[in-house]
Design goal:
The protein has a domain at about 50-270: Spore Coat Polysaccharide Biosynthesis Protein SpsA, Chain A (Alpha-Beta Complex), CATH 3.90.550. About 55% of the residues lie in helices and about 15% in strands. The chain has helices spanning about 5-40, 70-80, 100-110, 130-135, 155-165, 185-210, 225-230, 240-250, 270-295, 305-335, 345-365, 375-385, 385-410; strands at about 55-65, 85-95, 115-120, 145, 150-155, 170-180, 220-225, 255-265. The chain has an 8-stranded mixed beta sheet with strand order 3-2-1-4-7-6-8-5, with helices on both faces. Helix 3 (about 100-110) links the parallel strand 2 and strand 3 (about 115-120). The chain is globular and about 75 Å long. The N and C termini lie far apart (about 60 Å).
Length: about 425
């Protein structure tokens, strides 16, 4: 061991870090399976409450230049299976310059219960958090539900969320499942579909089962009005308002759970350029949240969420660095620019890691009916070398942007994902 080169040490460190995260995700996968099995034991409306006694709910939908999709979303919300006198649907038309306002006006003629809040510059066009705060001021529900403008929730989506939280005062928020509506359009949407299923049945369901931890996603979640009032709504400086909100809810002493019975269908990017912009914003936002809270880790009152921040720090820091270094060593080795002096079954170790990635990914997609196909298995095998490697590019771009913003003293600009149509 004393004769190891610097390249050898780098290689050993990256292998250990990669295997640590892979092994952790395998554990999460089995925990996700336990959550999957337990979901069958939940009886419909197990709360025992009648429709007449359901609490009031406000559904907020931020919309900035969403004429291609907002009509379909409003129609889906109008079909929600929830007492009409206990639900208000509020679409926030956030300084749209396209036909969003016209579409909403047409829908108001069909659905008088639809409320449209229009905000114009300089109050508007400041991002999703600002739009949600404006919509929240116009709402009156005891609970607040959020959907993105491209979402078509299933009829029982809101009921499932309400039925989960209503009799548990410890719950601050509940998060439903989102599915990819346009997953069969091209190879990108198929990759995204697999990624979202893996995230939800491994990271969400697994962490929920093992540690009682769930991350609020940007859509299909419900939160208590009292909590939003106490924490003064959404942070308008956060690019990933959902991740930032998660930390604050836990730190207020509440917990969050995942509800797979609540399902919404959303449109994912169909172009690589749109996907990269979207994921770069997500990475920038997550890096900002991690950077802030890792510095204030010991100030958090809820140590459970502190552990989760460490996990995300490991993912975006150590794991990212390990993947990057291992890729560089591999490429340098191909061109004869780098040589390992180590001896051992490293090819076997690499193939075992690759097999573990395929194993955990394919198990998680099998939790959804009709997704455990041979085509998805082939796509997972391909994802490791293509789609997953693009994550490195996204994080590099995000880190560069964060650094540039801090040097220049400018604030990050919120990017709205471009839509492809209904």
């Amino acid at each position: 061991m004393g004769n190891l080169t610097l390249t050898d040490w780098f290689f050993i460190s990256t292998v250990l870090a990669i295997w640590m995260l892979l092994f952790y995700h395998v554990i999460l996968t089995f925990a996700g399976y336990r959550r999957f099995v337990s979901s069958f034991a939940v009886e419909e409306n197990s709360t025992g409450i009648s429709l007449e006694s359901y609490p009031t709910v406000s559904v907020l939908v931020p919309a900035h230049n969403e004429e291609k999709v907002i009509g379909r979303t409003v129609e889906a919300l109008a079909r929600l299976e929830y007492p009409k006198d206990r639900i208000e649907i509020i679409v926030i038309n956030d300084s749209s310059t396209d036909g969003t306002g016209d579409v909403l006006a047409e829908k108001q003629n069909l659905y008088p219960f639809l409320k449209v809040v229009t905000i114009n510059p300089p109050q508007g066009a400041k991002g999703k958090s600002n739009a949600l705060n404006q919509g929240f001021l116009a709402s009156s529900g005891e609970y607040i539900v959020i959907y993105d403008a491209d979402n078509t929730p299933e009829r029982r989506a809101v009921r499932s969320l309400v039925e989960t939280i209503v009799n548990d005062p410890r719950l601050g928020a509940v998060v439903g499942k989102f599915r990819t509506r346009n997953r069969n359009v091209n190879i990108l949407t198929r990759f995204v579909n697999i990624e979202t299923l893996n995230f939800q049945w491994t990271v969400q369901a697994g962490r929920c089962s093992l540690f009682g931890l769930t991350t609020i996603t940007g859509t299909n979640f419900l939160i208590r009005r009292s909590i939003l009032e106490k924490i003064e709504g959404w942070n308008i400086k956060a690019l990933t308002e959902d991740t930032e909100l998660t930390v604050r809810v836990y730190d207020e002493g509440y917990y969050i759970t995942w509800v797979p019975d609540s399902v919404t269908w959303e449109q994912e990017p169909e172009k690589w350029s749109v996907w990269i912009k979207q994921r770069t914003r997500w990475a920038r936002g997550n890096l900002g949240v991690i950077s802030y809270y890792i510095r204030n880790l010991f100030n958090l009152r809820n140590k459970r969420i502190a552990g989760d921040i460490i996990y995300f720090f490991f993912t975006y820091g150590i794991f990212f660095f390990s993947i990057l270094v291992s890729d560089i060593i591999f490429l340098l080795g191909l061109f004869g620019k780098s040589h390992l002096t180590l001896t051992g079954p490293f090819t076997i170790i690499w193939f075992m890691a690759y097999a573990m990635f395929i194993f955990e990914s394919f198990i998680s997609v099998n939790f959804e009916a009709g997704e455990g196909t041979f085509l998805n298995l082939l796509l997972i095998c391909l994802m490791y070398f293509t789609y997953c490697q693009l994550w490195l590019l996204v994080v590099v771009k995000a880190a560069y942007s964060v650094l540039s913003d801090r040097i220049s003293g400018t604030n990050a600009r919120w990017y709205k994902t471009e839509r492809s149509g209904g």
